[in-house]
Amino acid sequence: MLPKQRVITWLAYQDKLMTKERLMRLNIPIDGDLNCLLLDRAAPETHQHFFVDCNWIQNVREALINWSGKTIPSYTVNRSLQWIKNTHWRQIRKEVATSIIGALIYYIWQARDWKHFRRITVNSAFIETQIKKELRERISMLACSKRARNCPVLIQRLCN
Questions:
Q1: What is the largest CA-CA distance in the chain?
Q2: Do 97 and 69 contact (CB within 8 A), yes or no?
Q3: CB of 131 closer than 8 Å to CB of 107
Q4: Taking the model in full, what pTM does it have?
């Protein structure tokens, strides 16, 4: 995971990302309204909305779940990571699921920032492609490990 991704994921885990709602709570002025930047309709940009309720993000999450074959419930970041930790999966499966969540957090936050600061709207299909590309690279590096040999179907599914 890149250093920026680790920071963004850690901030999301701590519920410290600067969503519009958090900025307002900290008395930091925001441009425009409190609505989510990824949706073109009124929905306040809160941590809960951003990682659980947002339809745009849920579509990306569902596409990644279908691609990976890993069920990851639509919980807050903290609760999702705890859920993965408590599952009875092999370690490599937990690493894949955690990597999906980390990449999802980073690329979605990046799409949000691009729309806010650069006025560039990012297509959800682009985000899906970026996440899959990154995960394939990570998993291909693990493909020769003993953990990966215990889950050949998963490795083959994700690397092809």
A1: 52
A2: no
A3: yes
A4: 0.85
Per residue in 63-108, pLDDT (tens digit) is 998 988 878 888 888 898 899 889 888 887 888 888 889 999 999 9
Own/partner pairs, 19-23, CB within 8 angstroms, 24+ separation: 19/45, 19/46, 19/47, 19/50, 20/44, 20/45, 20/46, 21/45, 21/46, 21/47, 22/46, 22/47
Q: From residue 98, how far is each of 14, 41, 67, 117, 133 by CA, in Å?
A: 16, 30, 15, 28, 16
Q: List 44's β-bridge partners, or say none.
A: 35
Rounded to whole angstroms, the Cα distance separating 155 from 133 reads: 14
Side-chain-side CA neighbours of residue 160 (13 Å): 6
Do the beta carbons of residue 60 and residue 135 sit within 8 Å?
no
User: Are the C-beta atoms of residues 55 and 39 closer than 8 Å to each other?
Assistant: yes
Instruction: List pLDDT tens digits, range 119-139.
Output: 999 899 999 999 999 888 877
Backbone φ and ψ of 84, nearest 5°: -60, -45
Please give the mean pLDDT across all residues of the chain.
85
